[in-house]
Amino acid sequence: MKRIVIGITGASGIRYALRIIDVLRKEVDLCVIYTRAANLVMMDEEKIDINVIKERYSEVIFYSEDDFSCKYASGSQDLDAVIVCPCSAATLSSVANGLSSNLLERVCDVALKEGTKLVLVFRETPLNLIHIENMRKIAMAGGVILPACPGFYNNPKTIDDMVDFVVSKALNRVGISNNLLKPWKYENKS
Length: 190
Known about the structure:
By secondary structure, this protein is α/β, with parallel strands linked by helices.
């Protein structure tokens, strides 16, 4: 069974993370690391706090950013992938610059040093040159930057359809097949 860490930061777009947890909770050994800011945004955007999520997904292990008892803080553990979704500019900057001041940053640092798949679903716009430079650093170190930019070729009808587009792309990048997004097909209408 694959071992996946989901990191949730304080960027807008908590719905993406909740969807990933919902899809993966019974398919993989799932660990979720959340920041204090993530809980604040969750309460603002979804009107629930992390304790409700912990109860809803009791089969998932949750860690706060302060709890370094998580086994994935060590490179000696066998981990298949880390997805940070949504990824804030602050977390992007910390990861790009090798900081490990909280558990999530440490797990991302370990992923890069061990060659583990690392996908950062960045959720900021517009971008400044510092964001772009930090993205470049992470890409050069082996991470993947996957901006939360839903496509429209699948003719989304709901917000959930647009969320599934981004979630599908993130899961595909870490080798998890899913049926959230129908592949694009060219149709010649002439």
